[in-house]
Amino acid sequence: MHLLLPLASLLGLEVDDLLARLRRDLIAWAAIALLMLVALAFILVAGHNALAEWIGPVLAPLLIAGGSLVFALTIFLVVQGRRAAAQRRAASRRHSTERTAVVTTAAISAVPMVLKSPLLRKIGIPVGGALAAAYLFSRATRPRHDPDET
Fold first, then answer.
1. pLDDT value at position 138?
2. Cβ-proximal residues to 52 (8 Å cutoff; 6+ apart), any chain
3. Cα–Cα distance, 118 to 124 (Å, whole number)
4. Which of 7, 8, 28, 82 could connect to 13 by a Cys-Cys bridge, CB 3.0–4.6 Å?
5. Cα torsion at 40, 43, 47, 53 (round to 10°)?
6. Crossing angle of helices 15-55/59-116, nearest 10°?
7. Per-chain mean pLDDT for the chain
């Protein structure tokens, strides 16, 4: 923690100004959030009054509560779906890393055997190098696109 202040001054940041700006922004965002909650409450009250006149005072709150539950369930399912997709991507990356580690271990353990045989030394090493280069070049030409990065 003691290193942050000198580091910030080296970067040209004034910590006091930065903290004051963050405090001002935090107060502004808190006020915006509070006013949005007040507006939402009045919108719900107005919707309740309109529904109470249209379908009755008992069904109006039930309809609003049901709509809120459906909306909350929809948000929950979307969040769960995105979390599951992220876990699948992480598992795929982990699987790829593990597969690379296994192949590397197998290659390293096969090196002494290859170096003992003159035939494999003269033919196997160049062919293996060519296959490895072809594999690396084929991987480098594929565009990498992560669907989360937009």
1. 82
2. 60
3. 9
4. 8
5. 140
6. 130
7. 84
Buried b (16+ CB within 10 A) or exposed e, 99-126: eeeeeeeeeeeeeeeeeeeeeeeeeeee
Q: Pick the closest to residue 28 from 16, 38, 20 (CA basis).
A: 20
Are the CB atoms for 61 and 78 separated by under 8 Å? no
Is 0.85 topped by the overall pTM? no
Per-residue pLDDT tens for 94-119?
998 898 888 888 878 877 877 787 87
Q: What is the pLDDT of residues 47-65, one digit of tens each?
A: 999 999 999 999 999 999 9
16-23 long-range contacts (CB < 8 A, ≥24 apart) are none
